[in-house]
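Ticket 4471: requesting a sanity check on a complex prediction with F0G. Repro inputs:
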Amino acid sequence: MVTLGEGDTPLVRSRAIGETLGCSELFFKLEGCNPTGSFKDRGMVVAVAKAVEAGGTGIVCASTGNTSASAAAYGAYFGLTTTVVVPKGQVARGKLTQAIAFGARIILVDGGFDQALELVRGITERHPIALVNSVNPDRIQGQKTAAFEIIEELGEAPDYVFIPVGNAGNISAYWLGFSEAFGMEWISSRPKMMGFQAEGAAPIVRGEVVEDPRSVASAIQVGNPASWESALRAKDESGGAIDAVSDEEILEAYRLMARKEGIFCEPASAAALAGLLKRAREGFSFRGKKVVCIVTGSGLKDPDQAAENEPTFMEEYPPELSAIERAFAVD
Ligand code: F0G
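Returned structure tokens:
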């Protein structure tokens, strides 16, 4: 009854990268096509509807940016007071712009996402405000629908799902979705969950909390993931892996996806493809395998990244046909 149009995102077949990997069935799930440009909307619509059902009038979240943009949108839609607590100076411009546009109250803290999450957990223990981070199980229930969509589209489960890992809610949600589908005998096998953290923010890989997580992929700068345990379960039960990719590998995948596939994602989202490329370099064969990369958010979220890291190919000419014609002239 209440929706901003989240879900039903495209599953696009790779035309170039899959072929270079010898993988004829590589797909990209374009979660940037959700209403606020990231997968967060799938869970946010459920969490916010449930908060309203419980008689709530306010919601709060900590965020590296996308959760705050989504909470702000659904808060506005449901007529709630939305407060977002975000790390000062570490949120991509597009995401902060969304929270401002949707009229959320924005609290900047001089700390990272982990501290922000601790603060909002403290607030919601003391005040009747709904916490809409992925520690809220309603968020996971919404996010698991992406797994159902992949099954519907492919007619079965893929062999591998490559996915970025930050606070680790999403990998847990996908695993829940695939496991429920398996339990209902809708699919006969479950995919291997391949989660990738950024090297400078890889607590699960290192097996210890990272005090000052750093990455070009600001969305996954998380040093102490709330869903750490369930992410490990997803990895172990699926026979998958949780590994790290460097910022260079992330930016390589970010550029490749845009240039070779026409898909502009934010850096954190590129960690999934970076992980696949890393595995391929390590000698894993994906021949004959169905592989899905979860492209979690739109590139427009972080316009400064594209501007900073891309060589510019802009040329300037006077607005005259003869001048423009020279630009098209072939030597
Ligand atoms: N990709 C993007 C674009 C994200 O924004 C996030 C998380 C992730 C991947 C990782 O998902 O946390 O479920 O493991 N963003 C959170 C936020 C932390 O506040 O927007 P996760």
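Notes from triage: The radius of gyration is 20 Å. Leaving this open until the requester confirms.
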